[in-house]
Design brief:
single chain; seven-stranded mixed sheet; 4 helices; 423 residues; mainly beta
Length: 423
C-alpha cells in the first residue's frame, strides 16, 4: 500500500484479499518438505490493493541527494528481513542508496503497528515528502518463520519502492504489483526474484544508474545445506546400496538415478528417486550391463536443497566368480541302485552348477548340486548314460537380471556302469 503526505489515498473501490503463505510443493511425497514454525502456520498476510494506483505507472517526488538514511525499528527475523530488502534495492546499481542508521532523526523509519494507516499488511509513504520523516509501517503481531521470511522481506521491499516514488504496477511479475504472493518466486534451491524490468526501468528513469538486478541466488534465512561427501556404492546380489557422510546443516536427503545411459541427474526430478533409510539409499531395479549415475542432494531445514549434489557413476555388471577348486567325485555305493549311480561331491557350494554328458562335456549347466543331509550329492541315471561320463562344474553368481553369470568350467570324468538289462 502507499500513502501520500501521510494521508490515505481514497479510491472508488478498494479490494482486499487475505493470503495464507503456503510452501511450494516439491513434486513427490518422498521429497523433504520445508518446515514452518507451527505457531505461525495459521497466520495470514493481508494485502490491500488501492485501485486508484494499482494500474498506475506514475512516479512521485524523487529524493534529493545520493543516500537516504533509514532506521529499522524492528527486531529479530523481521529486522533481518528488512535488511535484506534494503540490500536488494542497494544492489540495483541506482544512483541512490539506502543507508542504515540507528539515529532517530533518520529520513525514513520502518516501524510496526497493530493498525496500518492505509490498511492491508504494510504501508509506505509515496515519494519524497519535504519537512518530515517518511515511514514504512508493517503490521505488528505477524511472526514470520525462517521459511516465509522471504515473503516479509519482499513486503518491506515493496514499501521501499513506494518510498523511492514508485506507485503500483499492473503486472504480477513486478515487485510493485499490489499482491505480494505473486512477487516472490521461490524455487527448490531457494533462488527467487523480487524485482523485474518494469520497476527497475521506472526507478532508473527517476534516479539514474544501471537499474539492473539478477535473480537472487538465495532467499534463505538459515544456513544452506552443505555438500554431501564420502558417497560410495556397495552391492548385495541384485541390490545396490549407496551410503554417504552427513552434510553440514542438512536435515534430509534426496537420491536420484539416471534412467539408462549414465547421464547424471541435474535435479531431484530428472531421474528415478530411490528409497531412503537415513543416509542409505537402495536400488532394486538395475539392468545387467547398463551404466547408471546416482546423485545425492542435501536439504536444509527450510526444505531448500544444495543444487550441486554429489554424483557417482556405476556400471551394473556382474563379475564372473572363480572356478570351483578341489572338486572330487566319490562313488556312494550305499546310495547306488539299479536305476542310478550316486556320487558324493567335495569342493562345491549351493551356487555350483553342473551338467553330465556321456562321451563329451556339456556346454551349459543342466542342474544345481543337491545338498543331501549336509553333504553335496549328485546322481546319474544309468539308463540315460553310462561308460565314460564328463561331469562339468561351474560356479555361478546371480546378475542384475536374475540370471547366472558363470565361471570357467572344471571337468571331472567318471566311469558309470550301465543299468542292468531286464531282458
Amino acid at each position: 500500500m502507499q500513502s501520500s503526505g501521510g494521508v490515505r489515498l481514497l479510491a472508488v473501490s478498494t479490494a482486499a484479499i487475505s493470503l495464507t503463505f503456503v510452501a511450494p510443493a516439491f513434486g513427490t511425497d518422498s521429497t523433504p518438505a520445508p518446515s514452518t514454525d507451527s505457531s505461525n502456520a495459521s497466520q495470514t498476510i493481508d494485502v490491500t490493493s488501492d485501485d486508484t494506483h494499482a494500474q498506475s505507472t506514475r512516479s512521485y517526488a524523487r529524493w534529493p541527494g545520493k543516500t537516504i538514511s533509514i532506521r529499522i525499528a524492528l527486531s529479530g527475523l523481521k529486522k533481518e528481513a528488512a535488511k535484506r530488502a534494503i540490500k536488494d534495492w542497494n544492489s540495483a546499481n541506482l544512483k541512490i542508496k539506502f543507508k542504515i542508521t540507528t539515529k532517530k532523526n533518520s529520513q525514513v523509519v520502518i516501524v510496526e503497528k497493530k493498525r496500518v494507516p492505509c490498511g492491508g499488511s504494510a504501508c509506505g509513504d509515496l515519494g519524497y515528502i519535504r519537512g518530515r520523516q517518511s515511514k514504512v509501517t508493517m503490521t505488528a503481531g505477524y511472526k514470520p518463520s525462517i521459511y516465509d521470511a522471504p515473503i516479509y522481506s519482499a513486503l518491506v521491499a515493496h514499501e521501499l519502492g513506494h518510498i523511492l516514488g514508485l506507485s503500483h504496477s499492473s503486472k504480477d511479475t513486478q515487485l510493485m504489483y499490489p499482491y505480494i504472493n505473486h512477487v516472490v518466486k521461490l524455487t527448490e534451491t531457494g533462488a527467487c526474484r523480487f524485482y523485474n524490468t518494469e520497476d527497475l526501468k521506472r526507478v532508473k528513469k527517476m534516479y539514474g544508474g544501471k537499474g539492473t538486478m539478477a535473480v537472487k541466488s538465495s532467499c534463505r534465512f538459515a544456513p544452506a545445506a552443505g555438500k554431501v561427501s564420502g558417497l560410495k556404492v556397495t552391492r548385495d546380489e541384485t541390490t545396490v546400496r549407496l551410503s554417504w557422510n552427513a552434510a553440514s546443516n542438512a536435515s534430509a536427503y534426496s537420491v536420484v538415478r539416471s534412467s539408462a545411459n549414465g547421464t547424471c541427474p541435474a535435479n531431484p526430478r530428472s531421474g528415478t528417486r530411490l528409497d531412503l533409510n537415513g543416509r542409505t539409499a537402495f536400488d532394486y531395479s538395475l539392468t545387467e550391463g547398463k551404466r547408471y549415475c546416482y546423485r545425492v542432494f542435501s536439504y536444509n531445514k527450510e526444505g531448500y536443497l544444495n543444487p550441486s549434489g554429489v554424483s557417482l557413476s556405476y556400471l551394473a555388471k556382474t563379475t564372473a566368480p572363480s572356478a570351483p577348486a578341489g572338486v572330487t567325485l566319490t562313488a556312494n555305493v550305499a546310495n547306488t541302485s539299479d536305476w542310478y549311480a550316486a556320487y558324493n561331491v567335495s569342493g562345491v557350494t549351493d551356487m555350483t552348477r553342473y551338467a553330465a554328458k556321456a562321451g563329451s562335456c556339456a556346454t551349459a549347466p543342466a542342474d544345481s548340486i543337491y545338498l543331501n543331509t549336509g553333504y553335496p550329492e549328485l546322481t546319474i541315471d544309468r539308463y540315460e548314460m553310462s561308460g565314460n561320463v564328463c561331469v562339468r562344474f561351474w560356479n555361478a553368481r546371480t546378475n542384475f537380471n536374475g540370471d547366472d553369470t558363470l565361471s570357467s568350467p572344471v571337468d571331472r570324468w567318471i566311469t558309470v556302469a550301465p543299468a542292468p538289462s531286464w531282458d
